[in-house]
Amino acid sequence: MKKGEVLAKVYRGTTVESVHCGSVVIVDSIGKILYQAGDPYFFTFLRSSAKPFQVLPLIESGAAQEFGFTAKELAIMAGSHNGEPQHVKVVQGILKRIGLSGSYLKCGTQPPLYYTVKGILPRREEKFGVLQHNCSGKHSGMLANCVYQGWDTKDYLNPKHPLHRRILQIISDLCEYPARRIKIGIDGCSAPNFALPVKNMALGFAKLAAAESNSNGLGEILKAMRQYPEMVSGQGRLDFALSQINSGKIVAKAGAEALECLGVIGPDIGLAVRIYDGNNRAVGCVVAEALRQLGLVKNSDRKKLGNFVRPRIKNFANKVVGYIEPSFRLKKVGK
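The structure corresponding to this sequence follows.
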């Protein structure tokens, strides 16, 4: 791995205490690198940033049309939802329509993400259900495709399952990276996931942005994510904040281990940010700064991005003791 560029500095008072290194890469929809900071070919997993692409087989097979899935339901399948009651209700509706119960979901359980956003600590005796898991929308969509195709629903997470073979090919095609070179790993929700260079991830999102006028599956996913950003993530999340700026022309999807991928409609560019140490705390300010340097964040937008622009660090007494600040300049590539 090449030495990473410092993207953000963490201050305690006025003294730098830590730094976060990583990669930022911006490409157009034909794969040309326009700007970069750090290594644009850093090889890592797509994690949940893969979700918009993992929905595509559901649409291209005809299953989405057969079951009559709404844009809201497609958005939650492409998202990592907060686990709020509204999200649980939508996932329940998907499962009811395909004739399955929550017991078929194999994503596991976790405290809802809105607990983290709001600083809620789970009670010792508190139990959570599989529908509250941020990936339950994705899994319900996978099961819907299996039901429609007559595929095994019990083994739907097997990397050799026809569903995941198709997803692998879709990611290979959209990101223009050979399927044989994509590495397969198991995600936090137990579904197969895919490793490839961050430059190619950005390309996939540039194509997602460029699909605005398309009536194909990618166009449907883009429309759903823009129409229902609260289903893709939720209040207090970076993805949702990004959907509220730049006149709604940004579609974003976070991935675990400090990854953020987004597409910008109009210039039809894709951007990928990856912090190498996997610490998510600096991702928001790096993304906001990259967009500012590209001229895509106005002063009014900065207010909507809130604490993501310059995250405050608080101690256990809730006192602000420091902050995180971006520390990079995008390098323009070529003419």
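DSSP finds 14 helices and twelve strands in the chain.
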